[in-house]
Specification:
The protein has 71 residues and is an all-alpha fold. The protein has 4 helices and no strands. It has a domain of 41 residues.
Length: 71
């Protein structure tokens, strides 16, 4: 990453931070942790997962977005 890289701040619930801390090992940055997740959970896999979730009884697309913080 270049020395002129720009960073941003994201808001996470305390429970989420506690869970993510389990993955922040060996000097990894938060950016490293999230990149690793994205590398291991390709968008196509997410779409398949989301499609399966939406098949569950009683969950509408609106409810799915609300539960998972999607727009």
């Amino acid at each position: 990453m270049s020395s002129t890289a720009r960073y941003t701040t994201i808001s996470l619930r305390p429970d989420t931070v506690r869970q993510l801390q389990l993955y922040k090992t060996g000097g990894k940055t938060w950016d490293d942790v999230l990149e690793e997740f994205m590398d291991n959970f390709a968008p196509e896999e997410f779409v398949r997962w989301a499609a399966e979730e939406l098949k569950r009884p009683g969950i509408s697309a609106e409810e799915f977005r609300r539960r998972h913080g999607l727009k």
